[in-house]
Amino acid sequence: TVGSLLSGYGWYILLAAVAVYLLVQKVSRSLAARPSGPGAAAAAEEPDVVVRRQEALAAARLRMQEELNVQAERYKEKQKQLEEEKRRQKIAMWESMQEGKSYKGNLKLNQQQEAESGASTSAVPRSKPNKKPLRGGGYNPLSGEGGGTCSWRPGRRGPSAGG
């Protein structure tokens, strides 16, 4: 059996063995040329370069943190201003109630002033007050009334065509 295998596939086995040998030689050369492990690349760098890179990274982090702190301060100031404005509105409403005036009227005036200032900055679409409804108030799709020509009627019972 071994003799018949070698006589049938001998040349193929020999060529495969040569190809495997050459492949192993090439891989071993490439591994020998490459430095061993990831630590070798770090050791090859100069310590001064590493220190400068770490210092630059720390400085960048510090700058980003300072920018974040500035943004947080701005946000706090805006929140304080909004709270102060709300407090002023409440005081104005209370004073108008004490005088016997309607505080809702003052509130509507304030909202209109805000809307005018907001309308100047951005265009907001407003609904039309005199808009007609699409259908009459008595429309019911199940009743069959007022539907026009598209009403459904069941077919006749019994045999289809007389005979």
SSE blueprint:
Layout: H1 2-33, H2 38-44, H3 47-99, H4 103-121
Helix pairs in contact: 3-4
Outline:
Residues 102-163 are annotated as: Disordered. The protein is an all-alpha fold and 163 residues long.
In this structure, how is the largest beta sheet organized? none
Q: Assess the beta-strand content as a share of residues.
A: under 5%
Write down the overall geometry.
Answer: flat
How many strand elements? Answer: 0
Structural class: mainly alpha
Spell out the helices and strands N to C: HHHH
Q: Which residues sit in consecutive blocks of at least 5 with pLDDT less than 50?
A: none
Approximate helicity band:
55-70%
List the total number of helices: 4
- Beginning-to-end CA distance, first to last residue: 89 Å
**What is the mean predicted local confidence, pLDDT?**
80
The Rg value, from CA coordinates, equals: 44 Å
Task: Give structural notes.
By secondary structure, the protein is mainly α. Helix content is 68%, strand content 0%. The protein contains 4 helices and no strands. α3 packs antiparallel against α4 (103-121). The chain is flat, with a radius of gyration of 44 Å. One of its GO terms (cellular component) is Derlin-1 retrotranslocation complex. Residues 61-92 form a coiled coil.
